[in-house]
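QA checklist item 7 of 12: single-chain prediction sanity check.
[x] sequence parsed
[x] length recorded as 168
[x] structure emitted
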Amino acid sequence: MDAQNDTFDRRGTNFAEWAKVIEDGLAKRIDLAIENNESILYTKNLYPDFEYKERSAESIKFDEAIYPGFYTRLEKHGDEYTKTFYGIPPTEAKNIYENYKDEVETNQMIEFIGVETNVCVLANIMVIQNIFPEANITINKNLVAAASDDLHDKTLEILSNMNVFIAE
């Protein structure tokens, strides 16, 4: 999930009210993962160079920062993987595979939460599904959101047809 100011802070460039709807649920799910000693991986979107032509470095730095409501939890208990576009790049995917292959082989469930359902969540599920094809990929439909309810629902439908379990 991209747990950054960009989406979750009202001053973020891509803030939308739907992020606030899932914020408490995300925090509770992260807390449960910590309590159960589950591995927590999260993505951090770094903006490409062309973004600096359209807005200030200060704005980009603010948007890239992990949202304070998640920062302490993720900094202490999570593993950060960076990306510059929607999906985790090949080098990061290789690192995830190396770091988690044994765990996935024994546990085999990977749950996705976060934003944005039809963009980053979708793209990263495709990456992880290709790294761990035998894993049970799950998405909690109450802990993902998108700016468009229609695209959110359509994406969940597409994912369910790609052997992703949609949980409530």
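[x] summary fact logged: Residues 17-35 form the longest helix (19 residues).
[ ] second reviewer sign-off
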